[in-house]
Specification:
Elements (H helix, E strand, L loop, with lengths): L2 H16 L4 H10 L5 H21 L11 H22 L14 H10 L2 H19 L3 H33 L1 H31 L1
Helix pairs in contact: 1-7, 2-5, 2-7, 2-8, 3-5, 3-6, 3-7, 4-6, 4-8, 7-8
Length: 205
């Protein structure tokens, strides 16, 4: 496979994961009501976690992800964080909506949501690790190109979502914001329950 074909396939695979609805999507839409740049901040926070992980996998430390209970602890911790975030978002419905109400910047939210997402770890331990090993066959330069392209997929999509949310909020007003907060808050509670449930099942299974 040529390097161009590999990079094209890597971008398509990356986009399939990036565009799948998840906790980050919900938070970006919620925070995007107040700032069109919230998605960029979340993507930067995501990258702060993702780039070091990609480098570790590239240098052969991907096995650390497979240690017993690592994914389970991440799942429970992330589930609790999403639970608190979802409750906070739902409680904001009838008050003045402000993305700073959560006490965390979009960058910090991106970091915490990434660290607390067990499916992010699973993706990099499987699909992501395969892509990294393939990129390694072309040399460290092309691994770096792959890493940047993968993150740009996150950045562009997240930025697009926050701009879309901001424009919708400005066009439809407070009613749109309240509806998006209800949907996103419930979405976060759903993922919170799923993360915690899956971790407990694995612990006891």
């Amino acid at each position: 496979m040529s390097i161009a074909a590999f990079l094209a396939s890597a971008v398509l695979i990356s986009l399939s994961g990036v565009m799948a609805p998840g906790p980050i999507t919900a938070v970006i839409i919620g925070k995007g009501n107040d700032s069109p740049h919230a998605g960029a901040g979340v993507a930067i926070g995501h990258g702060i976690v993702e780039f070091p992980l990609m480098i570790l996998i590239f240098y052969g430390f991907g096995y650390l992800i497979e240690y017993p209970y690592v994914k389970e602890v991440i799942g429970i911790t992330g589930g609790i964080f999403l639970l608190l975030l979802g409750i906070s978002m739902l409680r904001s419905i009838n008050s003045e909506i402000n993305m700073n109400k959560y006490g965390r910047s979009p960058v910090v939210a991106g970091i915490l949501l990434t660290i607390g997402n067990p499916y992010f770890i699973i993706w990099w331990a499987t699909v992501g690790a395969t892509l990294i090993m393939k990129s390694a066959t072309y040399g460290i330069f092309w691994f770096a190109v792959f890493a940047v392209l993968h993150w740009l997929c996150d950045f562009i999509w997240d930025y697009f979502l926050s701009i879309l949310s901001f424009k919708g909020g400005k066009f439809f007003g407070k009613k749109f914001q309240k509806i998006s907060f209800v949907v996103c808050g419930l979405f976060l509670l759903f993922f919170s329950g799923k993360f915690i449930y899956d971790a407990i099942v694995t612990f006891t299974g």
